[in-house]
Fold this protein.
Amino acid sequence: MTLKSILAAGCLTSLAAGAVQAETLDVASTYPKNMPFLGESAEILARNIEVVTDGAVKLTIHGAGDLVPALDVLPQVSSGAIPAGWDWIGYWGGTLPVTNLAGAMPFGLGPSDFVGWMWAGGGMEIVQKAYDPLNVKFLPCSVTAPEPGGWFNKEIETVDDLKGLKMRISGIGGQAMNRLGASTQLIPAGELYVALERGRIDATEYSLPSIDKSLGFSEIAKYYYFPGWHQPASWNTFIINKDVWDGFDENTREAITIACQATVAWSIANGPIAQPDVLEDFRAEGVEVRRFPAPVLEALHESATAVLEEQAANDPIFKEAYESILSYRDASRNWNELQALTVKE
């Protein structure tokens, strides 16, 4: 579908605003519109784009299901049925295996290193190769801080406690859990409370504590485990039909990219800040906040590494990205270790 036909279909509308000809893009999100941080970050991107383009480009953010179902956002943007989307990139791992890495690489890079790899270390160029056949431009615009390991209705004391566990966990983390005997599935945010309450699942991970609070998990699960081994950092991305993207002039494309980078900075600053108070609220409600035992983490690491290597062997773009991340991590490790502050307070 061409930019002209999208305009004719009404997905991209032109609005007169004084001397400024404004183009308004409908953006389908994979998140509920008012979800803290994840949904909020799309609104921050919209504000930033409007500012840097001096009102020439505006985004109208639609919550999950308002335009299309959450898990249909990518194919609808690809076809041109909708001009743009806002997503957790890992949702598309079944179609684009490399997005499993950008969505969440277990035991992988933390937020600052993930930003470095993606924006300056070649990550964007590698991942874009997967999107090109779908006629989609992707921009990684919000990085999520390390997530908790999840909510559980039983204690996890040994690796055997994972056997038979029904858990909502996606991507490579879910595959690693399956190798250890769990039964995992991907469920959208809006369905998780009922699934956990009614026993469809025994456990779930979703996102940061402030976001989990908005979903009500503390009302129905007793144990909250850390660390988020499956997702030490992850990307939310702005995806745009390539015909729409190519319809912008070079200066507008550069301005949108700058707005995206500003949103990355916002996400780094705003992701962690609310979490300590939320954890205290959970404790006050009787939630037991715990760390996974070391033997469990070791087993998960071994299982996740096996999954990563298998996927690298099966998909050339995944392999290129995986090797690139490992190389970036090795190159930055000496620097990070030299800068580590180990003085006890």
User: Anything to note?
Assistant: Residues 3 and 244 are 5 Å apart (CA to CA). Residues 3-146+232-270 form a domain with the D-Maltodextrin-Binding Protein; domain 2 fold (CATH 3.40.190.170). The longest helix spans residues 316-339.
